[in-house]
């Protein structure tokens, strides 16, 4: 483990987001080792940046062990993480390397937060930090900040807006989960609800937008970060997208069949890998959060950040740098538990705004 980043492995470096993470790591002065299963693509990216690389497959534990040799931190960027996280976490525990990923999948958070997995990590002396990207660093830090402002909070609502389109990996994950509908947290328990279960208007600071519920990772992580038992997460969405989400309640079973999944994934592969650099550079993301308690005390805060993909590279590398420097806490962590509610403010072009505390009940 050195300041040069020689102890950092980036797995899935040839993916859309993985490439952004590599570029950010190099621009930060790190010299990560790149890894993945596609030898031609991984070697080309490594050559472009003058980096070492190691080819490894997630279904080959021996190759993963060889890839992790001498590495103390892994940024795992090859999804869908519901399939890929377990073998990499297993490898990190075997090799005593801190595990970071960029997932937003509730099932992954809950699995790694479980007593068994977190205990394994603590015994190995390593940190498990899923969600070190846009899912869920800004929203998790916002949730922790709201809890700090209102320690008695029992209800939490988060919302985000701003997008530049989806990468192939993100789109594939969404397609694979299309039948599952939505999720919220009630009384401390994750509760399944229909897709687009609720709709409302949210003032993001620049303007008011229409938002709809979705099963974002904070349904899991915000509870672990704050202990607030009732949580909902919303995203801004155009009317056509909301109609599609509602329709999935009735045809989700059909879209989950093998022929439909194959067709949809082929369509994804035929499209662009993800938003262009110009699209990313001109976009911003906005987040809004509200917490209130049973006495009607209420606080609202907002965040403004770079677009989601740019932010993912920034926060994943920043978290890895902290872990490389010895700042990792063993066991399962959320971003705010690991680095504090103000971690997001360390990221360039990020601003937070607090709205005055009120004594009126939330709508």
Offer a quick outline of the entry.
With 363 residues, this protein is of the alpha/beta class.
Q: What is this structure's SSE topology?
A:
Elements: E1 8-11, H1 16-27, E2 33-36, H2 39-49, E3 53-55, H3 61-68, E4 73-76, H4 81-95, E5 98-101, H5 106-113, H6 115-124, E6 127-129, H7 137-149, E7 155-161, H8 168-176, E8 182-186, E9 189-193, E10 199-203, E11 208-213, H9 218-226, E12 230-236, H10 239-255, H11 258-270, H12 277-281, E13 284-292, E14 298-306, H13 308-324, E15 331-332, H14 335-339, E16 351-358
Helix pairs in contact: 1-13, 3-4, 5-9, 7-9, 8-11
Shape: globular
- CATH architecture term of the largest domain: 2-Layer Sandwich
pLDDT under 50 segments (min length 5)?
Answer: none
Briefly, what CATH class of the largest domain? Alpha Beta
Strand content: 15-25%
Number of domains: 2
Average pLDDT across residues?
Answer: 90
**Based on the structure, what is the oligomeric state of the protein chains?**
single chain
Count every beta strand, where a strand is a DSSP E run of 2 or more residues: 16
CATH superfamily of the largest domain: Dihydrodipicolinate Reductase, domain 2
> Could you say what the CATH topology of the largest domain is called?
Dihydrodipicolinate Reductase, domain 2
SSE arrangement, N to C: EHEHEHEHEHHEHEHEEEEHEHHHEEHEHE
Q: Look at the helices and sheets and give the structural class.
A: alpha/beta
The main β sheet shows up as:
7 strands, parallel
What is the number of helical segments per DSSP (H or I, 4+ residues)?
14
């Amino acid at each position: 483990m050195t300041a040069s980043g020689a102890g950092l492995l980036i797995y899935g470096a040839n993916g859309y987001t993985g490439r952004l993470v590599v570029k950010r790591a190099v621009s930060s002065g790190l010299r990560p080792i790149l890894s993945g299963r596609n030898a031609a693509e991984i070697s080309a990216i490594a050559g472009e940046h003058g980096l070492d690389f190691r080819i490894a497959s997630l279904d080959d534990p021996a190759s993963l062990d060889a890839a992790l040799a001498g590495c103390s931190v892994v940024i795992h960027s090859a999804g869908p993480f519901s399939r890929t996280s377990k073998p990499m976490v297993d490898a990190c525990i075997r090799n005593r390397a801190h595990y970071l990923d960029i997932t937003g999948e509730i099932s992954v958070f809950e699995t790694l937060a479980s007593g068994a997995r977190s205990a394994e990590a603590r015994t190995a002396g390593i940190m498990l930090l899923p969600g070190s990207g846009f899912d869920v660093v800004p929203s998790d830090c916002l949730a922790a900040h709201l809890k700090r402002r209102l320690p008695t909070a029992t209800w939490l609502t988060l919302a985000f807006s701003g997008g530049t389109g989806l990468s192939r990996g993100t789109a594939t994950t969404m397609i694979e989960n299309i039948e599952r509908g939505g999720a919220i947290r009630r009384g401390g328990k994750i509760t399944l609800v229909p897709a687009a279960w609720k709709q409302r208007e949210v003032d993001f600071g620049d303007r008011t937008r229409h938002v709809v519920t979705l099963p974002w990772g904070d349904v899991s992580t915000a509870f672990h970060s704050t202990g607030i038992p009732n949580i909902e997460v919303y995203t801004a969405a155009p009317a056509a997208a909301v109609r599609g989400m509602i329709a999935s309640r009735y045809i989700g079973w059909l879209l989950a069949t093998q022929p439909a999944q194959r067709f949809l994934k082929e369509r994804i592969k035929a499209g662009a890998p993800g938003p262009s650099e110009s699209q990313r550079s001109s976009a911003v993301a906005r987040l809004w959060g509200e917490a209130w308690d049973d006495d009607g005390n209420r606080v609202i805060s907002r965040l403004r950040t770079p677009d989601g993909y740019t932010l993912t590279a920034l926060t994943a590398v920043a978290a890895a740098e902290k872990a490389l420097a010895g700042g990792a806490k063993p066991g399962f962590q959320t971003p705010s538990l690991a680095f504090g509610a103000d971690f997001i403010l360390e990221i360039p072009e990020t601003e937070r705004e607090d709205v005055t505390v009120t004594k009126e009940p939330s709508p």
